[in-house]
Design a protein that fits this description.
Layout (H helix, E strand, L loop, with lengths): L4 H5 L4 H9 L4 E5 L3 H9 L4 E4 L3 H4 L11 H13 L5 E5 L9 H15 L3 E5 L5 H9 L4 E6 L5 H4 L9 H17 L3 E5 L3 H10 L4 E4 L7 E4 L1 H4 L17 H18 L10
Parallel strand pairs: 1-2, 1-8, 2-3, 3-4, 4-5, 5-6, 6-7, 7-8
Bound molecules: 3-methyl-2-oxobutanoic acid (KIV).
Length: about 270
């Protein structure tokens, strides 16, 4: 369904995402980690920007998301927020800052909200972190859930393969998703699960379900910006659609610059004082 221009320019809020789901309007979400990229994707009209702990992989060069610290997430989130006018900015609570106990979880979420001015946090897990989510929600901080493949638990899973293919895990995921809606999460990310299961969850919940590798039955989609722009070419899962080949664009631009410098062609007369 289309919306008019004025409506499209309106600030995206958690409430607006629920309205979008009710109107069958799909939600487009991307990650960002810095001011300049956040500004570009906000101006392009993205609905939600996730300051993901995938920063650990694509910004810091780590193999997993586990090394990311709260200070690092706050640094990225603060930069992103400064570049954004319209999108809703959601920040991942990093590994080890909310699983221990609910008071620590609340303290972590409060630091993110106070220091970065972001508008919501995202947390990986279901029943096992319920108390932490509830305490954060009680403080008035919106929480986005994250079920299915939860990269902070990669050492427990031992693989990045599709989750919840077996009935028992699928049932647990459905029950976790319903619980997250019941306690007040405003949306849920479902990562790398069968499309039919994700579609079922989306149809049974009233809050938006955002998929990544979870098929077309979700209320919206999220991708890691570096993957969809073709900056990070070493990662090619089936679910990833590349919208640009920035690695090639950057390679050719940098090679052109190197050649011009070496040949003495840059700067020319009009490029100096
Ligand atoms: O950190 C991240 O980028 C994420 C998305 C993959 C949903 O959690």
């Amino acid at each position: 369904m289309s919306t008019n221009t004025t409506d499209n320019q309106r600030k995206v809020t958690t409430l607006r995402l629920t309205e979008m789901k009710r109107r069958n309007e799909k939600i487009a979400m991307l990650t960002a980690y810095d001011y300049s990229m956040a500004r570009l994707i906000d101006e392009a009209g993205i609905d939600v920007i996730l300051v993901g702990d995938s920063a650990s992989n694509v910004m810091a060069g780590n193999v997993t998301t586990l090394p990311m610290t709260l200070d690092q997430m706050i640094y990225h989130a603060t930069s992103v927020v400064k570049g954004v006018n319209r999108a809703l900015v959601v920040v991942d609570l990093p590994f080890g800052t909310y699983q221990g106990n609910s008071k620590e979880a609340l303290a972590s979420a409060i630091r993110i909200m106070k220091e970065s001015n972001a508008e919501a946090v995202k947390m990986e897990g279901g029943a096992e972190i319920r108390e932490s989510i509830e305490r954060i929600l009680c403080a008035g901080i919106p929480v986005m859930g994250h079920l299915g493949l939860t990269p902070q638990s990669i050492n427990k899973f031992g693989t990045y393969a599709v989750r919840a293919k077996e009935e028992a895990e699928a049932e647990r995921l459905i029950s976790d998703a319903k619980m997250l809606e019941e306690i007040g999460c405003f949306a849920i990310v479902l990562e790398k699960i069968p499309a039919a299961l994700a579609a079922r969850v989306a149809s049974e919940l009233t809050i938006p379900v955002i998929g990544i590798g979870a098929g077309n039955g979700c209320d919206g989609q999220v991708l890691v910006m570096h993957d969809m722009l073709g900056i990070n070419k070493g990662f090619s899962p089936k679910f990833l659609r590349r919208y640009a080949d920035l690695a090639t664009v950057i390679d050719s631009a940098v090679k052109g610059y190197i050649n011009d410098v070496k040949d003495g062609d840059f700067p020319n007369a009009s490029e100096q004082y």
